[in-house]
Amino acid sequence: MTPRFAIVGVGETEFKRGHPLGLDALVVQAARRAITDSGLSAGQIDGIVTSDSHPPHDEIALAVGMASRRFSAISPLIPGAGPVAAIVQAQLAIDAGLASSVLVTYGTQTSSPGGPYAYHAADPLKADLEMPVGYYGQPLYFAAIAQRYKHEYGLEPEQLGSLAVAQRQWASMTPGAQKPVPISMQEYLHAPYVAEPLRNLDCCLISDGAAAYIVTSLERARDLPRKPAVIAGVAAGSNPWTLTEMFTQSPRFLDIGPGDAGRRALEQAEVALQDVDFAEIYDCFTMSIVLQLESLGFCAPGEGGSFVAGGRTGPGGSLPINTHGGHLSHAYIPGITHVVEAVRQLRGERGRAQVEGAQVGLVSVFGGPDHATLILTADR
């Protein structure tokens, strides 16, 4: 399939725990930076897709200076899948003539009271059946998944540790990363457990912030000052169970990966996994990377732990993963910061963290049962 769309501008706020700015201001700041980065004027942006209804689209449009908002949509997929699945809506809008350039934004404040633990707190099934016995909270969910994986296939602490250590290496070369200080394997192995076998270094950060990017036609992108990141393939999907069931009652307990969406995105892009130069993979926990690598087909079920061991995903490794530090060490703004990093890699803008000769990048994200895969390439 001949690519027809590209990402032409990216922007991020400062990321921190307990940000002084409110969510509205953070989203607008990221959007303004993406517009500036794109080389387009605010008046040339005429569409918005967000992964949440807040802040409202009219407020974003006014604040960034859009002259006309001809298209607006909210991604129906759960973040972090939503900020990648939004590309599908942006492409459809441009293809239908409803917009010419579409702004995609997402921001969150997980340091607010309750943090990520508040996300499932209002779920009556969890409140009635799981919480009373202590089965609650994302670290516990993924610890149970990791324990099952360990029982089925075997899993060594150093295998998960290799991911945590590698992502701190990447973060140490990334301006603005929340955790830029490198860690050793010994430091990882001495880190406290949150829920065995997951240590605190296996868990994503608590972050406030926002990011944004702009989608337009490849033809238009080629007239802009920066190199476009070509959208070669993108697909979204969902597993056949609910968010309530996904991490605790799923009939396929180890199936959290992109599966069919990954295959469809690769087919659209007409690239094979061996063509991928780097990957940005949703990392709420180290374990989620292992399972997505298996689902995508980089390795067989049960081989993910050994696949990531020994620094393979770090600087100089055979498959660089989360080259900004990911959600473990850079910032946890689910999914969208992975897109921003992939664009910067393909532009060759990452300095010491640049993957040499990067031509093909893969982004894999999920949120509950929803998942999305994006293949970006340099303009070839």
If you had to describe this structure to a student in words, what would you say it looks like?
Helices cover 34% and strands 18% of the residues. The mean pLDDT is 95. It is globular, with a radius of gyration of 19 Å. The protein has a single domain, classed as Peroxisomal Thiolase, Chain A, domain 1 (3-Layer(aba) Sandwich). It starts with a strand and ends with a strand. The protein has 380 residues and is α/β, with parallel strands linked by helices. It has helices at residues 23-38, 57-64, 82-95, 124-130, 138-153, 157-171, 185-189, 218-221, 243-246, 260-269, 286-296, 304-308, 326-329, 336-347; strands at 5-12, 47-50, 71-74, 101-109, 193-195, 198-199, 208-217, 229-238, 278-281, 360-367, 370-377. The protein contains 14 helices and eleven strands. The strands form two sheets. A nine-stranded mixed beta sheet has the order 3-2-4-7-1-8-11-10-9, with helices on both faces. A two-stranded antiparallel sheet has the order 5-6.
Q: Which runs of at least 5 residues are low in confidence (pLDDT < 50)?
A: none
Decide which structural class fits the backbone: alpha/beta
Percent strand: 15-25%
User: What's the CATH class label?
Assistant: Alpha Beta
Please count the beta strands (DSSP E, at least 2 residues each).
Answer: 11
Query: Outline, from the CA principal axes?
Result: globular
SSE pattern, N- to C-terminal: EHEHEHEHHHHEEEHEHHEHHHHEE
**Number of self-contained structural domains:** 1
CATH homologous superfamily placement: Thiolase/Chalcone synthase
Tell me about the largest β-sheet: 9 strands, mixed
